[in-house]
Amino acid sequence: MTVPIVSRVSTQSVDPADRIDFWEEHNRRALVGLTCSSYSEQGLLATETNIELGDLRLAEISGNEHVIERTPRTCQALPKDSVFVSLLTAGRGVFFHEGGCHTLQTGDLILYETRRSYLFGFPSPMRQLLVDIPREVFATRCASGDVSAPMLLGRGSAVEGALASALEAVLADWVTGQESDDSISTQDTVLDLVRTLAAPRLDGGSAPPAALSQLAVAKDYIDRHLADPGLSAGRVAEAIGVSARHLSRIFQPTGVSPSRHILEQRLDKARQALADPGSRHLTIADVAHRWGFASQAHFTRVFRSRFGGTPGKTRPFLM
Q: How far apart are CA 84 and CA 88, in angstroms?
């Protein structure tokens, strides 16, 4: 898939004295008006990639220690009516707003409005995936309630944690081009996940996951447990809180059953390992065991059926 990149910039080649101005000007055009401060002796070293995702905008941002701020004056001078969903994938963060502050660790997700002022500080090197959801899209697809204060999501329960993890996986796959090229389907999955996370707090009721978000959570659970030989469709169904029959219905649009999806993911991982020269010290049995296959014989049989050749032929030729 070719990732639909809108812009990609870095301060690396910019004169250190001009990096802040460069960063502020770029974000004013590409994302949101803000001011920036750097606390590193090197100055601000940051990169940002903005990617289209249907009606949404996805930004992958990394940098050294710095602070960004959207002041009341900036909100007035450079208005923007969006809801941001920021997922911190590396580093730590502190988010200040009118009502208080939140401390973020790697894996945390915070949801907030760009109509309101905030300060987001990063005391160490960081990376985040940020989804820009236009306010009208958020109100229609996620929750009608006003985001009167930022919401830290993902820690509230095991279900919240699973949803946040699945959202990270979907966004990361889109950034790297591993997701399907159907931007509308991916956008719908992202909005379903955000809705399921945010609606209970904003609208006061429960928001059962839609099929797309359940599928994303199921796939994420499978990806994180592929090496477990006990992983099965029944265990996945239990982990995400649905029946085995409902799990099959969730996977029906993909054209494969949950069990087949598990098998294909294991085979793909094993094939990657076999083709990697860095894994040549591992035997075929080692690779099979690492990716959850009970025996080398079974692994060889299903590998040949899937790829048309034996595992040994996949290994790089070594002089």
A: 13
Q: What does the alpha-carbon distance between residue 233 and residue 280 come to, in Å, rounded to a whole number?
A: 31
**Hey, what are 84's tokens?**
């941001």
Q: Which helix (DSSP H) or strand (DSSP E) does residue 35 occupy?
A: strand 35-38
Q: Checking DSSP bridges between strand 46-53 and strand 5-10, what pairing results, if any?
A: antiparallel
Can you give the pLDDT at residue 265?
Answer: 93
Q: What is the dihedral of CA 87, 88, 90, 94, to 10 degrees?
A: 180
Amino acid at 206: S
Q: Given this model, what pLDDT does residue 161 score?
A: 82
Instruction: List strands edge to edge, sheet with 82-90.
Output: 5-10, 46-53, 56-63, 126-134, 82-90, 109-113, 151-153
Give the Cβ contact number of residue 54 at 10 Å. Answer: 17
42-67 pLDDT, tens digit each:
899 999 999 999 999 999 999 999 99
DSSP letter string, 106-143? TT-EEEEETTS-EEEEESS-EEEEEEEEEHHHHHHHT-
Answer whether residue 319 shows pLDDT above 50.
no
